[in-house]
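Incident review: delayed structure delivery

Summary: a single-chain prediction request sat in the queue longer than the usual turnaround. Root cause was a stuck worker, restarted by the on-call engineer. No data loss occurred. The affected request and its eventual output are reproduced below so the record is complete for anyone auditing the incident later.

Affected input:
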Amino acid sequence: MRSAPHLLLTVAVLLVAGCDCGRGRLVAANGGSLRVTLVGADPEAVGLTIKLGDGDRVRETSARISTLPLVTMLDDLPPGTYRATFTAWDVGPAALRSVELADLLIAMGGITEVTIDLSRGVVVTPAESCDGVDNDADGQVDEALDLPVCLTCLAGRTTPLGDDERCGPIACDGLDTFEVRSDADQSTCVKSEHAPLLTDRCAGAGACFAPNGQGCADGVERVVARAEACQVMEGCEAGTPSVSWSPDGTPCGAARECRAHLCVAIGVDAGPPGDPSGCADGTREGFLSLTSYPAIAACSGGWSVPGVTQVVAPACGRVSGNTSSNREGAGCAASDLCAGGWHVCRGKDEVGQKANGSCADAVPGGAQNNSLFFAVSQASQNDTSCDSSGDNDVFGCGNLGTQLAPAKNCGVLTRALASTHPGTCGFNEAEPNLGPWQCLGGTQGDLHEGALVTKQGCTNTSCSYGGAPVGNADKGGVLCCAD
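Output delivered after worker restart:
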């Protein structure tokens, strides 16, 4: 008798509640069955003997090997654990090869399947299937299954999922729309944005939702462009909105027309209302040319009432500015730096329009580096990116602060004060003891600098930079735009 080699051996127990489903075979309700599949044997083998032993009980059967694979069944086996021996014989008859399986489980009302290969010296593990059985005999049940998308194995049954990470992000931006909305004062380009589908991505067993399909959520509206009086908006519906100035003489209301970018009564001087300098103290520190920049001014000075992102009403009667009697800006808001008929510029779009598409002239020639920052009322949610809401970070023009990259979507704005720690504006040269900018607030102050910012950190020129004293009125202020 030859020594027993390694073998290919697969064992599976199918609990089929009395039915060998798909094979047309009934299983005894009070016992189990063994199906043996021989897939390989020595060329001279002509027969296979299967011997089962369970204590005093022994069950033996033989089958002739004519073609492979050979399948044979043993039925009506009492449930329990058996020692099984599989032996191939030649015509002698002499035993050729034999293999023993010490713990073969026969389950009530089930079929135990055994696959053997007596011609090779390898063990091949069968694939696991979703049936509540340890098909590959590794101590785990229904593991590492290769199931179709949106299906999982639960309690031995394939079960549909509501969401499956294998779907990946599902694009919905093909549903985005753009719409122009107008009222008496302005026109806005409103985008309905559809975020990618990241949850509830399964359309059914084996299928993810299609891109831009019924699984996508409703859009969220966002204003992407705004045109005020004497401005024209184009390209909104195509998704490429642009705003330009209306020519002088364009009607902008009853008995009113556009003159120098302003909507004024016909026959009235078109110059900006209030002080034409735009600054409350009558002097500009940037955009110096009134001819080139009649509707925007850079105004230096301090203020003590926090905030620039939201509109803060003047608090000290506009007695403020670096050449005023109140250089410290005590009791003043940022808007006190602007002359009557002017306001703190409302973000990147207004600055771009009134500064002729560039912030370059906000800093006059010869200005010292890191010496000027002029803030605007620009919203942001996070990451120094310009947005339509939120008061995170302080944005503006100048040569002081973090430089803004084009990807930040901030248009002509070039600089920002942005902190990652509460109680600071986030740029060393802007803050004490080098500058007066302060963003003092609570434990989440680094998320709301635009609502907290003041210029009160260098009272009585208590700071210095580059060998020169620095006070609250220094290192910039705000950009003021004509109403």
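Verification: The two ends are 107 Å apart (CA to CA).
Action items: add queue-age alerting; document worker restart procedure.
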